[in-house]
Amino acid sequence: MMRQIISIFLFLICFYANAQQYLAKDGTITFFSKAPVEDISAINNKVSAVYDAKTKALVFQLNITDFIFPKSLMQTHFNENYLESDIYPKSTFVGKVTENKNGKAKVKGELTIHGVTNEIITEGKLQIINDNVIISSEFVVKLKEYKIKIPRIVMYNIAEEIEVKVNIEFKKQ
Amino acid sequence: MNKIIVILIMCQSLFTKAQDNLLSMLVSEDKPIYISSTFKGKKVVNGQSVEVLSKGVLQFQIQHRFGTLNSGFYNLFGLDNSQIRLGFDYGIKDWMSVGIGRSSELKTIDASAKIRLKRQSKGSKEFPFTIATNSAIFIKQYRWSETNEEAFEMSNQLSFSHQLLIARKINRDLSVQLSPTLVHYNLVNYAEKNDRISLGFGARQKLTNRISVNAEYFMQINGKINNDVLSFGFDIETGGHVFQLHLSNSPAMIESSFIHETKGDWEQGDIYFGFNISRVFTIKENK
């Protein structure tokens, strides 16, 4: 009897420890490339993320193949030629909220795309409304830094700097 | 007591791990991963590949075949003679596309439908092959004056082809395909068979992300009168265009003709140079 009580107690400790964590499964990340010949945009609605209000740790993860492009051929090229999603199927961010004043937050962390990890620092919004946490941010990703090569022939079609927008709504665990 | 300690340690480790690495909480759903881009284009060289167009995509193809390389300088090694096929293909669904085309020399109109039945996948659901079917009808054109002839029958102008396409992407560069094919001719000469079966072999090796070499061979199984067709191709992809350069012992671009009516012989130098240019247009955009 004693054992069971203790184990249940311990179990509850685990839950309690997680109680400050917020989880999201359908966050949105979009990106936008503005180049002389064409503008390219894509959206991913299946970003999963965790935010820990206690430690201020923030992580998110997405599948490269979940990016939807208006043109199917772009999506094929994106996966096949540029992001090589067969080798690098996922992109992740592991970081921390370093500052948070009146909903304006600073985030620092490591962003991994195409198997290459770079440190990024960006600003955004972080709001806690009831049991939900909403974050949004915009930052720029340079393709060169992630070893994504653009051949000369499509140089005017694809921008070297890609604007990324993050919008994630977390729910309390 | 021991058990409690074990549980305690387990909980402890879970607890610390969750702090250290929240990523471990994001165990993504185990979905099957579908293998895409087994081939660059809808065709390996002349024969169909397992690839279908995505929904809402229109592909326009201009195919050229010149004369034989051994026809000498007088013919500029074949460049003086050329025949073309113009073709349109459209993706009705992500797994189904239809097409029409016309070959100049053969004066034949073709219409085809390709359906992808199964996709190669890995992950939670594994399947080793991509399987598709392709069916086509070929109508040899005639003049209205011919229809007045006593022996004229519309059905004599028709032939059909049915193919089962089974392909496997072995690694990210190499893909292979097997295509058992049945061609039916409504009208044949006395010595020829109406139904002819062949087995096609195709392969693609990528050299870079945008350039690949392709090879294709059709082995005639019954009713063989002419040579087997062997072709090599070179695909160059540049954004929305695909350029394909070909060498083949057949100048034809439709199944009913290049599989069973190939007269050329590689050893004799009866090699036809050709190229395709295809351009895709997105008619309906994804939402």
Features:
heterodimer; A: 173 residues; alpha+beta; Lipocalin; 2 helices; 8 strands; 16% helix; elongated; B: 287 residues; mainly beta; Porin; twelve-stranded antiparallel beta barrel; 47% strand
Structural overview:
The complex is a heterodimer of chains A (173) and B (287). With 173 residues, chain A is of the alpha+beta class. Chain A has one domain (21-172): Lipocalin (Beta Barrel), CATH 2.40.128.110. Chain A is 16% helix and 54% strand. Chain A has an eight-stranded antiparallel barrel with strand order 1-2-3-4-5-6-7-8. In chain A, β6 (116-129) and β7 form a beta hairpin. The longest helix of chain A has 17 residues, at 2-18. Chain B is mainly β and 287 residues long. Chain B has a single domain (30-282), classed as monomeric porin ompg (Porin, Beta Barrel). Helices cover 8% and strands 47% of the residues of chain B. Chain B has two helices and 14 strands, in the order αβββββββββββββαβ. In chain B, the strands form two sheets. Chain B has a twelve-stranded antiparallel barrel. In chain B, β11 and β12 (229-238) form a beta hairpin. The longest helix of chain B has 19 residues, at 2-20. Chain B is elongated and about 100 Å long. Residues 15-19 of chain B have low confidence and may be disordered. The interface between A and B is large, with 45 and 33 residues.
